[in-house]
Description:
Mean pLDDT: 85
Order of helices and strands: HEEHEHEEHEEHEHEEHEEEHEHHHHH
Number of domains: 3
Structural class: alpha+beta
Radius of gyration: 28 Å
Strand order of the largest sheet: 5-4-6-7
Number of strands: 14
Amino acid sequence: MDWILSLSNTILIFIAAIFILVTIHELGHFLAAKFFGMRVNKFSIGFPPKIFGFKKGDTEYVIGATPLGGYVQIAGMIDESMDSEFMEEEIQPDEFRAKPVWQRMIVITAGVIFNALLAVIIFAGIAWNYGEYVTPIDSMPGVYVEASSVADRIGIQTGDRIIGVNNKKVEYFQQILTPSEITGRNLTFMIERDGEVMNIPTPPNFLDLVGKDGFISESNFLPSTFSQVLEDSPAEQAGLQGGDTVVAVNDEPVEYWEQLVSKIQASDGPLLFEVERNGERFTTEVVPDPETRMIGIANQNLRDAFDVEQLNYNLAQSLVVGVDRTNDTLFGIVQGMGKLFSGDISVRENLGGPVAIANVTREATDRGGWLGFWNITAFLSITLAIMNMLPIPALDGGHFMFLLYEGITRREPSPKVRMGLQQLGFIFLIGLIILITFNDILRTFGG
Length: 447
């Protein structure tokens, strides 16, 4: 029963996100067409069969049962319906084809523009309502690097201070792992080791490695200090208290929380802890639970361990943050797509469709509630904008290319050519969706 509820919840969240994205996208086309005096025959959110609809003026407004898309049917335009009968009729002044090329270009790109604006508004709203927690890089100590981890494989060592990315020192730790930085073609991490600053290069498939094994997070910097000890746990039985710091395990020095956890989980018997409390040191034997390999301790909160700052923004500042995050995400996605096409990262592991999007949306919501939902919705809105501008017939980018050709040559491509290319584009997209969905299923359920 639980899995049914979980699946239903995932589907509802996915549909809600897609409904928002599609509505905003199609609203962009609709409002731009209306602004330039074009007649809109139908405004549909979702594809047939029709659930609900009404007509006002020249436009029929429809909610379709298939929630994975929508469309705006503008009079005098060859669209996905492939209806070209109007081409034999006299051009009417309120038709798409009667308007100047530049107006038609704006109408075609308006959906993409609205998706980008939606992302700006979401990111700005999050910044305005929640602010932002950042960790000054100068307050971050050395990092713990586990043997054979991705960080270890690229040459970062325990004790290194990560201070920048791509030959630039950063002010906050959060600036190191932004989408635009980590998808760069020649990604490097700036570190400080024994007083010397150096840049550590990464391999072309770095994102694949990170996707499989993870990378460095703020937890890798946490000291080996407990925030609390659970009641009746092995740690409490050994006399440990919240605020204690473990400095050695079995006479081997320990400095980091992840390092301490690794030693506890790798143990097969009692452990001798050297502990520092209020400036004094003592030793005690701790016996991890034989089944869980845990001793009942909790790590420090990041805000307690480091000089975490909360940045609050007014409305104007929030809009700047919204634009910056949208640009950063956009460039990150575009650069990531470039890595897919160049073969630097695996298509199978990184190309996702409806199943992957639904899973990611659910996971984001599980972790961050409404904040997670809106963050992933903004990300998907930018993704939708980029995908729609690909120069593939049947997408907005394909229509734009036809208009660009018309603007340069001063003649419109023949309806026969346009319809043929759009049919090919439609077939290509259907095949791509099937392929991606099949890949999603294999990756999700086949391991």
